Amino acid sequence: GSMEINRGPLARRCGHDPAQVVAGQPLFASLTADECEALVERSVCRSVRRGEVLFREGAPCRGLYLVVEGAVCTYRANREGQEQVFGVFGAGESLGGVSMFDEGPYLASARVAEDGRVLFLPMAEVQALYRTHPEVAQAVVRELATRLRSLAALVDRLALQDVPTRVASAV
What DSSP letter does each residue of the chain carry, written as one string? Predict the structure, then answer.
């Protein structure tokens, strides 16, 4: 009965082929189809609804999220609840990577912006890959550099945007 369905290939349960989503990741581009499939089998694919929080800033990082379908936004909030959105990630994009590589807490929170599906890759699985595959390790470094550049651009935007406010309050 229903137990049979649960043991079926993950691709069928997910409705998309998560192995294709994994293969399309810059991080995993060097993996063979079999390696992508094996990674997916050790991961969890699930439906998510708009408004659902995947993880919160400061919480321990447990792994990497790949958006299979839909969209997820990352943000930080201050005590007053004001939010600064870092980015919106669509199908094929990953979240939570930075925290996974230094084993620190999540740097931002992530909320589902559009119904869809996410694939959760446990930290140990991804770490095993970049320890055994130099190409994955190189991709990790590139990914971190890209995120750092986008954060630097965000800092510039916020600082420049704030100039009139600072001038007004100084008068």
Answer: -HHHHHTS-HHHHHSS-HHHHHHTSGGGTTS-HHHHHHHHHTSEEEEE-TT-EEE-TTSBP-EEEEEEEEEEEEEEE-TT--EEEEEEEETT-EESHHHHHHT-B-SSEEEEEEEEEEEEEEHHHHHHHHHH-HHHHHHHHHHHHHHHHHHHHHHHHHHHHTHHHHHHHH-
Residue 166 pLDDT greater than 80, yes or no: no
pLDDT tens, residue by residue, 63-115: 889 999 999 999 998 888 889 888 899 988 888 777 777 778 888 999 999 99
Taking the CA atoms of residue 37, residue 16, residue 112 and residue 60 in that order, the dihedral angle to the nearest 10 degrees is: -10
Q: What's the CA gap between 110 and 106, in Å, rounded?
A: 9
List, for residues 14-50, the tens digit of each pLDDT value. 556 788 888 888 888 888 989 888 888 899 999 999 9
Predicted pLDDT of residue 1: 37
Pairing mode, if any, of strands 109-122 and 63-77? Answer: antiparallel
Measured CA to CA, the distance from residue 85 to residue 68 in angstroms comes to 21
